[in-house]
Design brief:
Elements lengths: L4 H8 L3 E2 L9 E2 L6 E4 L11 E2 L2 E4 L18 H7 L11 E7 L5 H11 L12 E5 L11 H17 L4 E7 L4 H13 L3 E6 L1 E4 L3 H4 L9 E5 L9 E2 L7 E10 L7 E5 L6 E2 L20 E2 L2 E4 L7 E6 L5 E7 L1 H15 L15 E2 L29 E2 L6
């Protein structure tokens, strides 16, 4: 049953979030009058995917224009603090981002983001950034503003989690699984790529149909579980070949030494695939699913509480600051943590290293027939999987 998480997210926006533009101190989350909205269409057509990015907008659905990061937006220092990533390095490793359509000023906007937070330059000239079409060429697709905003979230999330990783963006000609899949295969062929993030999805589908696009042993392939709460399987997160990434509400504070608190984000997708084989590594996790269970792990995704500060396009020429979330935020974060880990790159690895994860034990993303599919608990649960990164030891 779909949960009315948009209402919950608006209320949650009055909570305290941290790791903000002021350099990591606590501050108010996104203003209460803002609410999250999809940047792509909310439902995908058959054979197609929709992006899972959400941004905070006003009562009229408009994005506030801003010359500085939002006070409630999660920053690189905050993200690294929350997940114990400071001091880890991914130098020489590439995180690939696969999305649909073009983004005219991607390199310019990424430069603004990284400069704002004192991150090293990542440009095509210095070899840190590459942008190509689904076939590996330089003739890029037409721009779609919604998918371009998704790309902005993705590259900013990788920058925040792994500032010294290289970034490859592969732009599919359309949002069809055939074209997105071709883009994933192209990403996997590029030298240095150790992780590929896919912040999109559609209905549950079979690996016998699309699995060849996501089956790349030796490369971590992550996929977001969706933004509509407990709904069942969503492909490619329901594929046996990927790491399915759920979402949390991440806030600065709490009584633990960690200094951060996490609960289930009510929008985080979860469920069981009706098609694909369960992960052997998850056999003792108690998923309750006869087949593939989502999620495996999770990270910040609530746009109002733990949403990332992002510099993003409003048109082909204009850009501004905003606050973004959705499991489109969590997927590139986890791909980056795989890159920081530097070994293995398998969706089985977290299941044997749970001590290097923060277990999320409170919150719900809806109503479900088997309690752990939509409710947090100790150990594995559907919305957050095994938990969130505590360093890179689980990856």
């Amino acid at each position: 049953m779909k949960k009315s998480w948009f209402v919950a997210a608006v209320g949650a926006a009055s909570l305290v979030a941290g790791g903000l533009a002021s350099g990591g101190s606590a501050a108010s989350a996104a203003p209460a009058e803002l609410h999250p909205a999809h940047v792509c269409k909310s439902v995908a057509a058959r054979g197609e995917a929709t992006c899972h990015a959400l941004k905070m907008v006003d009562a009229n659905g408009a994005s506030p224009m801003a010359t500085a990061p939002p006070a409630g937006g999660l920053t690189p220092s905050g993200l690294q603090s929350a997940y114990n990533l400071a001091g880890l390095h991914g130098s020489g490793r590439t995180v690939a981002i696969v999305d649909a359509y073009g983004y005219t000023n991607l390199e310019r906007d990424l430069g603004v983001y990284r400069s704002q937070f004192g991150l090293p330059a990542c440009t095509t000239a210095n070899g840190c950034l590459k942008i190509m079409n689904q076939n590996g060429g330089t003739s890029l697709p037409r721009m779609d503003t919604g998918w371009a905003q998704e790309q902005a979230l993705d590259v900013d999330a990788v920058s925040a989690a792994c500032p010294d990783c290289k970034i490859l963006v592969v732009q599919a000609s359309s949002a069809s699984f055939a074209n997105l899949g071709a883009a994933v295969n192209t990403a996997a062929r590029q030298a240095g790529v150790v992780a590929i993030s896919n912040s999109y999805g559609g209905g549950d589908a079979a690996d016998t149909t699309y699995g060849s696009y996501y089956n790349h042993p030796g490369i971590a392939v992550t996929a977001s579980t969706g933004d509509n709460g407990y709904q069942g399987g969503s492909y490619p997160a329901s594929s046996s070949y990927v790491t399915a990434v759920g979402g949390t509400s991440l806030a600065k504070g709490g009584t633990s030494a960690r200094g951060w608190t996490e609960t289930v984000w009510s929008g985080a997708g979860s469920g069981c695939s009706t098609y694909n084989t369960a992960l052997a590594a998850a056999s003792s996790a108690g998923t309750g699913c006869a087949k593939r269970a989502m999620a495996d792990v999770s990270a910040a995704a609530d746009p109002g509480v733990g949403g990332l500060a992002v510099y993003y396009p409003t048109s082909k020429s204009g850009s501004t600051w905003g606050q973004f979330g959705g499991t489109s935020e969590s997927s590139p974060i986890i791909a980056s943590v795989y890159a920081l880990a530097g070994t293995g790159y398998s969706n089985a690895t977290p299941y044997s290293h749970t001590s290097s994860l923060y277990d999320v034990t409170s919150g719900s993303n809806g109503t479900c027939p088997t309690t752990q599919w939509c409710n947090a608990r100790a150990g594995w649960d559907g919305p957050t999987g095994l938990g969130t990164p505590n360093g890179a030891g689980a990856f």
